[in-house]
Amino acid sequence: MKKILLILLVLIIVAGGVWYFVFNKTKDETADLKTYTNTKLGFEFKYPSKIIVTEKSQEIILSHSVPYRHVNFCDLKDGSWDDNFIDYSSRIQVFNENYVSAVKKKYGSINSMVDGVMDTNGNLSKGNVFVAKSIMGEFDVYEYFIGAEGCGQHIYVIPVENKTIFIERDLIPPFVFDAPYNGPFSDESIEEFRNIQGVILPEANNLIFDQILSTFKFTEVNGQECANDLECREIVCSGGGFVHEQCIDNKCVLGLDAKCPK
User: Fold this and answer.
1) What are phi and psi of 186, to 5 degrees?
2) What does the pLDDT look like over 242-254, one tens digit per residue?
3) Is the preceding omega at residue 180 within 30 degrees of 0, hence cis?
4) N vs C: which end of the chain shows fewer Cβ within 10 Å?
5) How many whole angstroms separate alpha carbon 234 and alpha carbon 176?
6) Residue 47 pLDDT > 90, yes or no?
7) What phi and psi values does residue 182 have, to the nearest 5 degrees?
8) d(Cα 1, Cα 160) in Å, to the nearest integer?
9) Per-residue confidence band for 168, with pLDDT thresholds at 50, 70 and 90
């Protein structure tokens, strides 16, 4: 009996040590926050300082990687190797137009992402396209998935009045696999990736993404320079109709009375 109690005590201590290590490592990933602000499009969010933020055209790219030579699991070409392991990857894009128009602009055509997703009032609904709908603060978030066998991305769509936000989040193999089905990875290889120096563990990856979403908010827009109202944009509303920017102090801005029709 004493032997069994001793074994149980040892297991509890070991489990507690593992939990403490994972908890503190995960907690460290979301410490030391920075704020990204886009005055042109009018939004901001917070992110851990270790995440690299770059801008490419109208897209904001968030990424992190660690040196580790490995086979590129999602490259269709056999034998492709990478010198760095990407353990976090997401992209944010904001369009000043409704969902259907934004999809056409982003992906080049009206495709399966828009079939049957608009209700009779012209608003976005879950329909058969999105795999989930959730609430993020004051925003409705619709989730769409593209991919298979551990490779692909989750696409989160957030319609807000006369804007549409796309947030793409890449899957990170081998961290998308769990026992008993580990895909092409053994338990040992998954553990090997978890032990890479400086790697962002999947638990921390989720926390970082949730933190970015939960701190996302719209801010004042610094519009383009203008001489008169004719040089400013006509913005498509999510429920139909338009609002027009006004040229105020030589900047295109939405006036206080510019509201989308209900």
Assistant:
1) -85, 165
2) 777 788 778 777 7
3) yes
4) N
5) 42
6) yes
7) -105, 10
8) 63
9) very high
